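haha ok so turns out i had the wrong file open the whole time. this is the CORRECT one, sorry everyone. sequence first:
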Amino acid sequence: MEEYAPLASLSLTHVHYNPADRLSYLCAWLALVPQALCVIYVTLIWSNREVEIMLMFAGQMACEALNWVMKRYIREERPPEMHGQGYGMPSSHAQFVTFFSLSLTLFLLFRHVPHPTETRTPFTLFQRFMISILAIGCAAAVATSRIYLNYHTPKQVLVGCAAGAIFAFAWFGFTTYLRRSGWVEWGLETFLARLFRVRDLVIQEDLVDSGWARWEERRLRMQSFSVQSGDGRKNK
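then structure:
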């Protein structure tokens, strides 16, 4: 019988949890939030080509790179109950979701100034504030789940949250500088940006409203054409 090398587990999506504990099962799903957010990032970038989303994703990846460096510099082990591999300080999950939730909050409260259109009334400042609170609450749930599943100690999670928060504020300041100094506008005029149709509309427009006005206009025009065609047949 032919022998094979022992199989390895892809730790990116492999999560240990207690099958007899429903909360542990929920925490296992929460552990997949960073992967889901990456899919959302890529989907939005591909479908909307918004430079603001690209900048936020670039910051997210830079934050992950910082976490990789910090773990290998600090070299603190995970809790003894954890059987996984890799260092635990700081928690990459906590750092990831903290950066995301605070970056989203800073964007919604300080950079996003949506204008009303004929087809949609944008969220008010209070509504955007409530969305920010929801995002931060979800991030807290993900970070807490890492402690519950014994993947990290409370200190490792807190340091991860602190690193993600500091980097979020720093990245927001950096992107604000890029906008005010004209670098973003310059980048949008480059050949590659024009080739891939990169735009900067989400600052003043809702992603939900993207293309909706054009669709409504087309739909009404088609309905009007259908009615006129029907009246023409009746007159004959």
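The chain has a mean pLDDT of 85.
again sry for the mixup
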